[in-house]
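The freezer alarm interrupted the setup, so I double-checked each line after restarting. Inputs confirmed:
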Amino acid sequence: MQANAEPITARGTAEVPAIEARGITHRYHTAQGEVLALEDVNVAAPQGKFISIVGPSGCGKSSLLMILAGLLPPSEGERLLLGSARSGPQPRDLAVAFQDACLLPWRTSLDNVSFPLELRGVPKAERNTQGREALAKVGLESFADRYPRELSGGMRQRVAVARALIQKPAVLLMDEPFGALDEQTRMDMGEQLLTLWDQIRNTVVFVTHNLTEATYLSDEVIVMAAHPGRILERVTIDLPRPRSIEITETEQFIHLRNRLWRLIRSQE
Amino acid sequence: MTTKVRERLVTAGFFVGLLLVWEVLSDVGVLNPSLAPGPRQVLGTGVMLFEEGLLYDMRVTLTYILASFAIAVVGGVLIGALLSVSATVTQVAEGFLTFLLSIPKSLFLPLFILIVGIGAAQKIAFGVFSSFAVIVAATIVGLAQVDHDLVRMARSQGATPLQIFFKTHLPSMTPTLLEAARIAMILNITGVLIAEMYASREGLGYLVSNYGQNFQVDRLLVVIFVVTTIGIVLNEILRGLELRQERWREGT
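Predicted 3D structure, all chains:
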């Protein structure tokens, strides 16, 4: 807990990327034979930056994220977290927000949010306090006693974000967290995420196939190609922060998003 | 008056009516009083039996029932979990379980007596034997239904294998287990009672067989009523636990 109390940017020097994939190659076996999911992928997310990974389906972006999370051991290459190669999940430095929220259905919002603390053996009173604070950050303090099935899809995803943030992670990995939501809710969620992130400024790696979302949220967008999964291009998004949703209508925004779109299109 | 209250009143009225008819039929001599004594007589015998120490036999039997249920549930979940480790093992086990679930358990009672004797161990062992296969089967089914995404989520947050079992696997299979536990409880009560009827000097099963052999139908009916009540109460406790799961379950 002590380590998490420090400001996140104080860990390591600015030159060390918060999280890095070095020479990642990943193969898996199917009935049809071996599939090369990722080939020699190198990605580094600088500290305090918001990075998105986009690409067509089958480009291995979700596999890459699971490798970065330490949940999927790669066939070759290594993952570096805050400058050192550590295998497996590292819950004190890294949190993951999954597709479909992944809430435990038999637990209330509060008990879901405080789950990471429970695993660490934090006493109940303390985890309830922190859990309520985390729920308040995503505007759900009055839904603390609700079960996931009693919440809307957007609310469930906010609970999942609160649960990731309660870990006070230096690195937050998000795997298409808003993918199952309708467009309106998705952009609302993006806006809320940016508001939260402006207060925290940790490192985020965000996987999505929605280019508007990627452009709106990120400092840099990594475009991947499929068969085999590899990195095609890195596009710097030099839009000013803080950003509001209106920025999506500016010429500069549309220009950047169209560039991403052409990169993806060029593969087909 | 709500529909629920009305339903309950109708049910209660039905049973009261049934008791009245029974009483009248036995009073006027339509029913043979030595084979079907009236409710009043049975009630009187009941009071007498409790004064004579029926509570002691109830305690003996209830202890056997609860002990064998606890062993069957804990053991059944452990065995089921072990069998679920490999798909091949599960497949082999399922064949054996189908066999265990479909044979009449009472066939094995003499064998149990030869192996563990006729003491408390025999009653508990036979109760466990009667019910644990249901729990093992439910555990295998329940574990197969666990959402792997939830397990991965718990892993990402640093859960140890034990934490993963107790905080993701176990709660997600609890509804399936509780359903199985109710069936297991019935089988388990039957198992303990048969074991007591077969060879025992105390307990409700012993009383049933003893009163039956001595043609004491009023006493027999009292014991049957006591066993029924125990069965209903245990079943309702498990159903209460099941109802507590309803709030989080989808589609309820």
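Quick read of the result. Residues 96 and 173 of chain A are 5 Å apart (CA to CA).
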